[in-house]
Amino acid sequence: MLLFRQFIFQTPYNYESKIMLNRNDTLELTIEKLTYTGDGLARHDNQVIFVPQTAPGDRVEVEITELKKRFARAQLRRIIKPSPYRIEPPCDAFQRGCGGCQWLYLDYDAQLQIKHAIVQEALIQHHLTNVPVKPILGMDDPFHYRNKGTVMVHATSEEITVGFYEHRSNTIVDVFGSGTGECPVQATANNTMLQEIGRRLRTEHRIISPPQRLAFRAGTDGKISANLPPQWKNKIQTTKHARFEFRGYQFRVFGASFFQINTNQTEKLLQVIDGYLSHHPIRQLVDLFCGVGLFAICFAGHAEQVWGIESSRAAIKDAQKNQHLNQTSNINWILGRAERELFNLWQKEPALDTLILDPPREGCDKRLIGDITQSNLQRVVYVSCDPMTLIRDLKRLQTGGFQIVELQPIDMFPHTYHIECVAYLERD
Length: 428
Prior knowledge:
Elements lengths: L1 H7 L17 E5 L2 E2 L5 E5 L2 E5 L7 E9 L3 E11 L10 H4 L12 H18 L22 E8 L4 E6 L6 E3 L13 H17 L3 E11 L5 E3 L14 E6 L2 E6 L8 H15 L4 E7 L5 H5 L4 E8 L2 H14 L4 E5 L2 H11 L5 E4 L8 H9 L4 E6 L2 H13 L2 E9 L9 E8 L1
Parallel strand pairs: 4-6, 14-15, 14-17, 15-16, 17-18
Antiparallel strand pairs: 1-5, 2-3, 3-4, 5-6, 7-8, 7-10, 8-9, 10-11, 12-13, 18-20, 19-20
Helix pairs in contact: 8-9
């Protein structure tokens, strides 16, 4: 553990030194830590160099591929001395360049520690040193967790490819074209369907060119919603909506609507939020960026009145159907942009006291943060899949009069650099 902490908790990036390297230079480097891009960070003459597919403690030979004003990027040529946190990736496609996972070569316990450290370091860099960060909630079995995915399908007379893009490339890495391949993070039902597609392409000799995108989602009942071509809809069994059950509530999700991709960890996410909402009685709860109504419906019992705000018409339709499905009568849905509709709502309903928000990766704009701080809201539960934009927004909320009570990281995306966090704030 001491060795691990030595590699993680290095000094922040130093961009003061200008890059004095040339493209195609070959260097030997020691990787200090992993960053929130998935890449390893090393230094040469105090100059920052990012190297993908490396681990803390790796001694590597790299080739400089890109020069920026304050840093460089390099590709890994060989591992001179491997990190003790490396493992053999349990996926042939990963070793052929598949970009679906970035950290499949890292021990899972090491992944969790690295993600926790990334969050802590980001807080320090934003001078939020007093924010309690709880231990990250990992998975007992970090495989076959993704209920949703997108593959590219390309079939010619010479080659069949069903797979994912190569990392930072438009090249498709085949996973399922043989009819037997498997993705270690996709749900078992998704793997089964994609294998069948690979087999059908081989037996039917169908041409699909240029490549087509196939999106799919498996519900907790094992049934799959997918945008299959018309000729396959009667041959491969799918459903219009994926169905999920959480905390005794039923949800149907149309393919294009946002929904959590890790079914097991969503249960933990809901438990964390439930703990925060149980601190105080709630009169009016707002679920901002509500999607198909997961939070609004699961926590309707905590409040006298609930409001769900969402900009997607399809998601709002699903939310209304989910409300009817679960017979929750105290929820009102609002279709529109969060920045406008939250302001309009608290002008009409000044008793709003609790907010749950789960914004897109880019976080909240300044106007929305301003509306939150100027309202009468007393509590905020902020769910984010990007700790960098989350911490930026937490800083603004703190400036606007909220206290950051605690931050809970949750590993919703094992074997990738992505980090889910839940922050709980109360009005000072």
